[in-house]
Amino acid sequence: MRKLAAGNWKMNGTAGSVVELQALIAAHPMPGCEMLICPPATLVQQMASVARGSALRIGGQDCHPKPSGAHTGDVSAPMLRDAGASHVIVGHSERRADHGETDALVRAKAEAALAAGLVAVVCIGETEGERDAGRTLAVVGSQLDGSLPAGATAANLVVAYEPVWAIGTGRTPTLAEIAEVHEFLRNRLQALIGAEARGVRLLYGGSVKPSNAAEIFAVPQVDGALVGGASLKAADFGAIVAALSA
Ligand code: PGA
Q1: Which long-range contacts (CB under 8 A, 24 or more apart) does 187-195 make?
Q2: Which regions of the chain are under pLDDT 70?
Q3: What residue ranges line ligand 1, CB within 6 angstroms?
Q4: Residue 226 C-alpha to ligand 1 middle, in angstroms?
Q5: What is the CATH number of the domain that holds 40?
Q6: What domain range is 16 assigned to?
Q7: Distance CA 205, CA 169 (A)
Q8: What total of structural domains would you count in the chain?
Q9: pLDDT computed for residue 246 by the predictor
Q10: How many Cα atoms occupy the beta-carbon half-sphere of 72 within 13 Å?
């Protein structure tokens, strides 16, 4: 399986940020892993045109479950595809928290992504309170069950395990804790979609940076990372790409 280094720019970036993309492409013309950046929707088209012909893929950060219609402010999966995206993140914890997104909605969004020919990057993860209460596996298991799109395969689904308390905080679970969750998710996926589960990339996300990337990538069943803050600078994200390619 080809590993995946994915960057989530969140609500950051303007036209000038294209220089970071150009630097990333120049530094990693033939990376040993897949490389994806998900800029804000305003930049998808421009960045997809800059990345065309390179090893860098461009994705959205969210999509509406419907392909079109009266949904002011929303962006659909076919629109992202039309703009040059190949992937879309769905169910990020910031959207689950800020916009009250449920597993059922995340699943509908993921199904819209698949219908549009996009790869769905489905995010799940426990809060700190849930971890402290010993509920991590129960929480991520039910999120996976509820958010998984019908028709998921190794080619169209990526799952990102992102503990909410590790996002943007500089804190990460121990390597043993990451291993426990990833092994659990691999088995759960196997029960849900059978043999395809072996090829689904399971990403870890939450405070991944150049200094901890290599040790996290050495954890069994970790097939890459979803990176927020450290994806904004080509040098930092490039170092993570290099760690995953090693
Ligand atoms: P972070 O964000 O790398 O800044 O912790 C990860 C994410 O939210 O995808």
Answers
A1: 188/141, 188/144, 188/145, 189/144, 189/148, 189/159, 192/144, 192/145, 192/148, 192/152, 193/148, 193/152, 193/153
A2: none
A3: 8, 162, 167-168, 205-208, 226-230
A4: 7
A5: 3.20.20.70
A6: 4-245
A7: 12
A8: 1
A9: 87
A10: 0
Probe residue for ligand 1, chosen from 38, 61, 96, 167 as the CB with the greatest number of ligand atoms within 8 Å: 167
**Active-site residue, from 87, 92, 101, 182:** 92
Which tens digit of pLDDT belongs to each residue from 119-177? Answer: 999 999 999 999 999 999 999 999 999 999 999 999 999 999 999 999 999 999 999 99
CA of 106 to the centre of ligand 1 (A): 19
Comparing CA positions, the residue from 33, 19, 7 lying closest to residue 244 is 33
Cα of 45 to ligand 1 centre, how many Å?
Answer: 23
Write the single-letter amino acid at 23: A
Task: Report helix, strand and coil shares of the chain as percent, to nearest 5.
Answer: 50, 15, 35
